[in-house]
C-alpha cells in the first residue's frame, strides 16, 4: 500500500520565504519533497534547493519526486543540525532561506514496521534515521523506572507518567516489550479507564515521548535554532512548522533569544495557523504552527 504525505502550510511557508527565481533555499526536513517541490517551482529556472533528510526511505521518495528538477536539487542524508558543515562542503557561504517542517511524515507514520504508530503490532523501533543505535525498545527495556517517568513527563507531558513507567517495568520483568502493540496495551492498562478519552488515544503521549527521546528531536531543534541563522544572508528567512507545544515553545524561545541578541527579527508575533479549509482537508495540519524570523 502506498501512503502519501500531504505537505502542511505550503503557501504560507513559500510566501514568507520569498521564493523567487535564482534563489537558494535549504529544506532541512526534506521528507517526501512536498515543500521542496513548491520551492523549486517558484525559484525556477535556476534556483537551488538543498535538501537535508536523515531517513533513507524519505530520501528515495523525494528523489523520485524531484527528479525533473535535475541538478537544481542537492540532497544530503544527514541531521539538520549539521547544516553549517553541509554548506561548507558545498562552499556556500549563505542561503536565502531555511525551512523546517518538523515531526514525522505520513510515509513514516503509516508504515507499521517503523514502529511510530500505536496502531498495529510493529517492531518498537521509532528511529527516523535507521543508522542511529538507540531504538524505542532499547529505551523501554533498558532504562530505570525513574528515567522512563522523566521521559514521559518531559517529552509527553503525560500526567500518568509514574504509573506507566511502573507498568512498563513490571511487564518487562516477565518479557521484553518488543512491539508497538505491547507498549500500547501496557499504557491502556496503566491509565485508569475513566480517563481514556475518545478524542486522543491514551497511548498518544507515551509514543510521542519515546519517539522524541529516541531521535533526540528537541536537542536537534535547539541546535538548529541556535546556529541556523548564521547560514542566512542578511534579510534571509527561516520558517519553522511545529506540531506540538514542546516544539513550538522551543521555536518561539529560540527566535526570541536571537532577536534579543540582535541577529534576527521575528516576523510572526503570533504563529500562523493553517486555514480551516486546510485543516478539514488534512487532519495532520490541525496542530501546525508556523513561525518565521529574518536575519538582520
Ligand atoms: C513532516 S516531515 C517533512 C515533510 C516534507 N516537508 C514534505 O512536504 O514532504 C519531517 C521530516 O523531517 C525528517 N527529520 C526530522 N528530524 C530531522 C533531523 N534532525 N535531520 C534531518 N531530517 C529530520 C523526518 O525524517 C521527516 O522525513
Describe the structure.
This protein has 296 residues and is of the alpha/beta class. The protein has 2 domains: 176 residues, Rossmann fold (3-Layer(aba) Sandwich), CATH 3.40.50; 105 residues, Orthogonal Bundle (DNA polymerase, domain 1), CATH 1.10.150. It is 44% helix and 15% strand. The protein has 13 helices and 7 strands. Strands 3-2-1-4-5-7-6 form a 7-stranded mixed beta sheet, with helices on both faces. The longest helix has 16 residues. The chain is globular, with a radius of gyration of 20 Å. The mean pLDDT is 97.
Secondary-structure map:
Elements: H1 10-17, E1 24-27, H2 34-43, E2 48-53, H3 56-66, E3 73-77, H4 83-89, E4 95-101, H5 106-110, H6 136-142, H7 145-156, H8 161-174, H9 180-190, H10 204-215, H11 217-227, E5 232-242, H12 245-260, E6 264-266, H13 276-281, E7 289-295
Parallel strand pairs: 1-2, 1-4, 2-3, 4-5
Antiparallel strand pairs: 5-7, 6-7
Helix pairs in contact: 1-2, 7-8, 7-10, 8-9, 11-12
Bound molecules: S-adenosylmethionine (SAM).
S-adenosylmethionine is lined by residues 5, 7, 29, 31-35, 52-55, 58, 79-80, 101, 103-105, 128, 220.
Amino acid at each position: 500500500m502506498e501512503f502519501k504525505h500531504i505537505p502542511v502550510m505550503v503557501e504560507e511557508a513559500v510566501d514568507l520565504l520569498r521564493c523567487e527565481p535564482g534563489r537558494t533555499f535549504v529544506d532541512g526536513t526534506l521528507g517526501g519533497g512536498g515543500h521542496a517541490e513548491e520551492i523549486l517551482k517558484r525559484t525556477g529556472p535556476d534556483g537551488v534547493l538543498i535538501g537535508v533528510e536523515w531517513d533513507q526511505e524519505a530520501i528515495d521518495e523525494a528523489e523520485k519526486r524531484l527528479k525533473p528538477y535535475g541538478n537544481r536539487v542537492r540532497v544530503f542524508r544527514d541531521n539538520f543540525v549539521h547544516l553549517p558543515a553541509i554548506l561548507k562542503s558545498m562552499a556556500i557561504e549563505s542561503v536565502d532561506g531555511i525551512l523546517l517542517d518538523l515531526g514525522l511524515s505520513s510515509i513514516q507514520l503509516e508504515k507499521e514496521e517503523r514502529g511510530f504508530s500505536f496502531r498495529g503490532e510493529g517492531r518498537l523501533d521509532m528511529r527516523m534515521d535507521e543508522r542511529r543505535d538507540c531504538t524505542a525498545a532499547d529505551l523501554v527495556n533498558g532504562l530505570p523506572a525513574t528515567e522512563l517517568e522523566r521521559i514521559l513527563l518531559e517529552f509527553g507531558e503525560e500526567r500518568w507518567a509514574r504509573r506507566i513507567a511502573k507498568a512498563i517495568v513490571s511487564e518487562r520483568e516477565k518479557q521484553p516489550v518488543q512491539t508497538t502493540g505491547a507498549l500500547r496495551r501496557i499504557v491502556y492498562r496503566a491509565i485508569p479507564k475513566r480517563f481514556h478519552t475518545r478524542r486522543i488515544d491514551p497511548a498518544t503521549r507515551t509514543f510521542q515521548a519515546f519517539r522524541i527521546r529516541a531521535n533526540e528531536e528537541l536537542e536537534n531543534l535547539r541546535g538548529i535554532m541556535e546556529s541556523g541563522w548564521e547560514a542566512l544572508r542578511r534579510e534571509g528567512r527561516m520558517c519553522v512548522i511545529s506540531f506540538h507545544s514542546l516544539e513550538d515553545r522551543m521555536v518561539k524561545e529560540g527566535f526570541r533569544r536571537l532577536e534579543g541578541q540582535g541577529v534576527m527579527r521575528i516576523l510572526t508575533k503570533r504563529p500562523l495557523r493553517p486555514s480551516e479549509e486546510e485543516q478539514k482537508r488534512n487532519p495532520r495540519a490541525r496542530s501546525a504552527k508556523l513561525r518565521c524570523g529574518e536575519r538582520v
